[in-house]
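Sample intake — Secreted protein
Collected from: Streptomyces griseomycini
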Amino acid sequence: MSIRFTTKARRGMVALTVAAGLALGVAGCGGGGDDDKKPETSASASKDSGSNPSAQEGQADEPLAELRGSGGLLLQITSAQRDAGGFVTVNGTLKNDGAKSIVVPAALSGNETEIVRNGRSLGGATLVDSKGKKRYYVLRDTDGRPLTTTGFSTIKAGESLSVFMQFPAPPADATEVTFQLPTFASGTIQISG
């Protein structure tokens, strides 16, 4: 046998082994029947509709706050959950309460160049701790993208969109903060957790 034939045979065996391993991996990860229930929403971002939060534990049936914005927009804050990592995640629903489609105001993104560069978002949101006299801005990832729902521009009449925003957590004794979003009325919310 030549060295060339042996090398080709080894490459073929490696390719066959890799293909078999991938096939087993895909088969092992596949659904196994009707018992598997897939979530209806996903926390991952998509190009068309922005990122949607998954259902959060501790969300109230009654909103923590309802804030009215321009053009018939309504923001219902359903939860503000403190987690062990030092963050507060605010979840809610942005709804077009008007009679016709509305273009979501660019002002909701805030005016920071780094956030505005990443498209429409709720990056202009802040939490204000009146006791501690501090304002907390939406967090950003290492690429400067805000950790909030992004990628939306128009909301049809009667349509609603699940939204989230993530902030640094105020001190543990600060359980009541004021939520602010440009073009919306301010509202006081309770942080749980």
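Post-analysis note: The longest strand covers residues 73-82.
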